[in-house]
Amino acid sequence: MEALQQLRPCNYYKISRSPLPRLLSSVLRRRYPANDSLPDPDLIIGAGHDTHASILCAKLIRGGRTVVLMQPSLPVTWFDLCLIPAHDKPRAAPKTIITEGALTGIAPGGAHDPGAGLMLIGGPSRHHRWDPDLLLTQINSIADKTSSVNWLITDSPRTPTETSQTLGLVNKGNVAYVCHRELDRSWMPAQLARAGYIWITVDSVSMIYEALTAGAAVGLLEVPVRRRHRITQIPVQLQSRKMVTLYQDWDRGAPLTKPATVLNESARCAEILLRKFAL
Questions:
Q1: pTM for this structure?
Q2: Which domains are delineated in the chain?
Q3: β-bridge pairing 245-246 and 217-221
């Protein structure tokens, strides 16, 4: 929404999804749940499979164009536009826009202080196992070899408790740990804009694309692969395009440099929406 607002003055409203029985009742009564006071929409935007029915019912009752920010579980043709990450392998279609990763709310640019570094730690997932010893080895190595950089480390809701506790015990003068539960929503965008160097565990795909959008030099910390999947191929694909540096390459002497191309997919897609729907 921030990207749209930068291009056109607009109001937006957050609408909670409704259970299917309530939606069906709303369609019969031609009244969308609890939103009679809102103006008829120009765009109805949603992300998450559980929003699909609500989006379609809202359009049926109140009008507007439907936009989903993902590969939908329903047919693409049911929506007016689908913004789908390339790693989901979408088919080219009139109602599909292929994006570089998931869209983010991060603005490109920033001071990117070479003396400020950020480490973002994820956790085990469907595609990745977790090795806290391997992670700690990489963090200690980076801290030791970049003594002029002050590193902030934060975890995520997926980070195992034991790993978070270990991060808080890293005994390096240039490393500080902050628990994600202590941070507000403004912290991460501010740090992404400030940091000159950002290391992210490879399992955290959304954070990788946020860091690339910010425009800092991005490195990827190794995490064991549970099973090969298109998601696990993203780091290698980004590395081949000189967008990121893999830890194993950096450890052998490869520099951690800014991406060859700074992403701004939210702005690009906002322009497409306004042009396509003549808004």
A1: 0.87
A2: 2-105+267-276 (no CATH), 113-251 (3.40.50.2000)
A3: parallel
